[in-house]
Fold this sequence. Notes:
Shape: elongated
Helix content: 25-40%
CATH architecture of the largest domain: 3-Layer(aba) Sandwich
Structural class: alpha+beta
Order of helices and strands: HHEEEEEHEHEEEEHEEEHEEHEHEEEH
Number of strands: 19
CATH class of the largest domain: Alpha Beta
Amino acid sequence: xxxxELLKKLVKMDTSTVDKANECIExxxxxxxxxxxxSEIIVSNQKKSLVATVGSGDKCIVLNGHIDVVSADSxxxxxxxxxxxxxxxxxxxMKAGVVAIIHAFIKMKDASNVKVMLQLVSDEEVGGHNxxxxxxxxxxxxxxxxxxxxTQMAISTRAKGILQVDMITYGxxxxxxxxxxxxxxxxKAYENFKKIKSLPILKIGxxxxxxxxxxxxxxxxxxxxxxxxxxxxxxxxxxxxxHLDPEEILNDIRNVIEGDVQVVQMEPxxxxxxxxxxxxxxxxxxxxxxxxxxxxxxxxxxxxxxxxSTLNIPAIEVGPKGGNWHGKDEYVDLETLExxxxxxxxxxxxx
Length: 351
């Protein structure tokens, strides 16, 4: 199959479910076997990942991508092309990137200058803890990682870390007609939230990110109109500038609020030096492709590459142009899909 045919095949698979995502992983294994490339399937909590390695050399480059998508109506799994834009669920996030790394990987089959590891996972959209995280824990790593998440053909060397907490605020119940006899936990919770948003550590930025972000995402408290609520739970999603220490943020939260704080998720940020040897080589590949205006930037969101950060393995994102990720008219620019595949091969061949 050429890249367009493979992309059509992958997008037609509704990989928003575990079963279909696993079928897609198995399809990719068969596809690689057609090129006489063996691969291994790793299963964690019924979710499948694929690992394969080609080439030889002292250095190993990991190409990482996910085949799972967020849910959508059936029409979005019937892809179509219009004005060289390919439309369909997962077209940009990130099955086009997966096609690029699969075909670049196949072309590196007989390379003698570098070893290349392909990783395809099926659970990035739900956290990646049974996919890339498991692979990293099992030792499937390398010297440098490229994940082809959609980046508009820019190079993402940073991403904010994740700190998600539940804040429990307590009050005193009283009859709703006499609120002065009670202590309203909802009102106290909101005051606590304002204190968190005002924390100095969350105002700190760097040369890419102005500051950390704080999102009040869950609010649960009160049950009837005529009672002062004595309990409130608030879910807070903090995306912190990557050089900050999440434990320090957590301690500052606990010191400033009245109530309890329970950690739901704490994930590292991504912080790769732009002086990195491999990034220089990627920029050279862009130049050879006459793509001179490549941008270095940072992601506000996160991806599976954060799992490599825990081992101080430099990991970046670079992917095709597209838009409407997770939306009805998701699309990818086919011209940049071809460009990405050629860039990856050029980068790998010239290490």
